[in-house]
Fold this protein.
Amino acid sequence: MAQIYQYAVAALFIDAVIIFFYFQKRSLPTFQNIVFFVILSVVTLNTVAELGAGYMEEHLSSFSIGTAYIIECLYFTFNLTFGVLFTIYNLSAFDIYGRLNKKSIRIVQSVILFPYCFFLISVWLTPLLHNYINLVFTFDYVNGYQRGRNFWFYGLCSTKAFFIIFSFAIILCFNRYIARSKMQIMYFFIVTMSVTSLMQLFNYGLLIESFGMSLVTLVYFFFIQKPEEMVDSSTDTLNQSALQRMLRYNLAVGRRFYCVAVFIDDTMFIANTFGIPKLNAFLTDAGNFLKQNFSYANVFSRQQGCFCILLRESDEEALNRVITLLNNRFQKAWVRENVELKLYIRLCIIDCPKDAESPEEIMDIINMISSDERYRQSVVFASEIDLKYRRRTICIEHCLRNGLTENRFDVFYQPIWSTAEKKLIGAEALIRLKDETGHFISPEDFIPIAEKTGAILRIGEYVFESVCLALSQIDVEAYGIKKIDINLSVAQCMQEILAEQILKINSIYKIPPSIINLEITETAAAHTPEILLKNMQDLADAGFELSLDDYGSGYSNMSYMLNLPFKMIKIDKYIVWAAFTDKRAEKALAATIKMIKEIGMTVLAEGVETPEQAEWLTASGCDYLQGFYYSRPIPKKEFLSIMLDNKKGDANAD
């Protein structure tokens, strides 16, 4: 059959272009890059073998039968190997390996390698057994090249198709983790390889399959194979994205390794003193030192001033050598453009998967060591950390991070009793958070973490909007609701746009500001007096009631009551409880209530749990009482039911 070489020649040109640009880029020694280099080599050899086989078939009389068989076997070998390699590459490039467990990876490997090895053996048995059985193809001087119209040939073709379909099916299962642009490249791969393979299958002389392979490789090279996306530009090491992919892969295959986090302290001081360019220069020098002493593929820059090293040597002796090497170098000064500087480091050693079984757990440990003042020693082993506290903290951080999107948050209401009206007149809105099992996490546990991570800002906005939404859906007068207290966190009070945000949300739901009482802690008043004063004045002018929360638990500065526009003071529950166990505390509380009343403010006492406490606080002049004696914090529906019953009770009494 006459051979049409144009497509194969074009494929060879494309291969040359890819090779030229490939070596213009720096190739990082990662698994994905290594596989791509092998693919590029196989695609080029496949094109050469296809051209050679086509020429040989047209001039068979010039070659020996043995040579013809070898060239044809090489072509089929490269052709079949391309399918296997691209399947492996797709699973790596689309980060599928890291999302499978060890058992699943073994199954995938078996599904790929078994048919590959089976038909590869059949290809090379073809010349050895051609006198006895017709396998994939035959050669003779009379009939030339003939395909085997049997199980072996069509099985080989089906295997190549299987590799394409199999990798596509797995990637489709994880498409929610994959960018749309990458999925489009995968579709291009499927269509191109299917069309060119079928065209050559039904028209053997048209050497177009190698063109399809080269075209797909070219598109992958420019749109998927981007090593620069894995590099941290400031330190010239692999970045956090590369670190997470490597962690996922190592953990997925069940490999034991150490993750050594290197924290360089005082980076802010260096940046402020010498400038950010100089800081980056020193960090680049530190990164170069790590790359020289460890494999490039195992050194990562997680963030400014934090490097991670992955050590496959899992014995303690090798680990101790690494610790000694790092400490010895960083004890010496670093010199850059006549500036001499010592970089002080701390090390965190994580034995994986013993100490952490997922990339997220590893990152959480590193974050904890980086920010927790309890772990400031030169070397910290993850195994020595308070595991119960660590896991609980990690769990809470995950819940906070996904709380709003996964509907883990809810607003509860704790009713407030009016001593003058002798009935419930409102409630305090309190945030509640559920863990993954549906159990509530104590606010005392998650609020400090939320303040530390910044999640408290989203939580505060969520609570305020939830209350406004709830009030907008009912007739507040019909329920007898006269006030709802809402806490403002320290972080919220530090925002200059706090009043603007509150007024914007309130304008959407059109809630009378007088119903809402915004509670501000003494801590917030102490931290941000100027910003807080402006926000409070704007909110007070808009008609919101403002109260000083948890009075007595913080600085107890009289100036807050006198200089800020508070209308109510909330006595901290611990002060209330102390008054009923200590006579001096009782006198102090009575004097405090009297003082607050005399300067024209109302008083709310928290933590009321007994009728004796309620009676004494009422007699002492408290305007409002709140505590378990009246009700625990309850869901909105239950709170509204109580308020409705409370209102009906008043109507019946009248």
Summary: The mean pLDDT is 87. The chain is about 55% helix and 15% strand. The CA atoms of residues 65 and 94 lie 44 Å apart. The radius of gyration is 36 Å.
